[in-house]
Amino acid sequence: MQMIxxxxxxxxxxxxxxxxxxxxxxxxxHVDLLICPPAPLLPAFATALAGSAISLGAQDCHAAPSGAHxxxxxxALLYEVGAHFVIxxxxxxxxxxxxxxxxxxxxxxxxxxxxxxxxxxxGETEAERDAGQAEAxxxxxxxxxxxxxxxGMVAYEPVWAIGTGRIPAEAEIAAMHATIRAGLTGQCGPxxxxxxxxxxxxxxxxxxxxxxxxxEVGGAxxxxxxLKAEDLxxxxxxxxxx
Length: 242
Ligand code: PGA
Prior knowledge:
Blueprint: E1 3-7, H1 14-26, E2 32-36, H2 42-48, E3 55-58, H3 75-80, E4 85-88, H4 91-96, H5 101-114, E5 117-122, H6 126-130, H7 134-145, E6 153-156, H8 170-188, H9 191-194, E7 197-200, H10 205-212, E8 219-222, H11 229-237
Parallel strand pairs: 1-2, 1-8, 2-3, 3-4, 4-5, 5-6, 6-7, 7-8
Helix pairs in contact: 5-7, 7-8, 10-11
This protein binds 2-phosphoglycolic acid.
2-phosphoglycolic acid is lined by residues 7, 157, 162-163, 200-203, 221-225.
């Protein structure tokens, strides 16, 4: 079964939760559906989705279990308010907050200790792809962003495809996902063979069917199109059957 994950980023308000939850609860799903709203919305979202099969995730966590880290959020608190997943190392965090792969690995360790499944994002910039460096960059990010004993998921998100409406050719996605799969089995042993590798970057209802049919694509991480429940559900509908 594929996973369709919605990343609301810094969008959304309390008033959006009830209609959104009602829409996704009413859907017949053949995928795992995950919503990652801004952290302050998690408790009310958890209440609105209680008893459903739809999961909640956060968009970041801190590497330490607690402490003097003003503005940061501990993984255990995210879990306590209803998150079971956490996106880590998104390119916007790597860019806006200068997060290194080593920091991402430390956060992933903290997430696992708190019971959260991490979705670790990797992906090259356009300049790196143009320079023929895309696979090397992603291999390097993967090697340094995944902690020992990692059991989560990876999302391949080419930076130049995020929020731009541009997507790689299917063959490029297939090649990169094969590279990531090889990295995962090398780093994580047999467990790496079964880990989901999501594709993210301008996934929309109109291109989801093609993207989700690419070999080794185990689902999608959806930004802009996740803000409307009907669009996220149309993407979920486009996933190949189980
Ligand atoms: P997008 O974002 O779907 O708006 O391109 C994807 C992401 O950043 O996770």
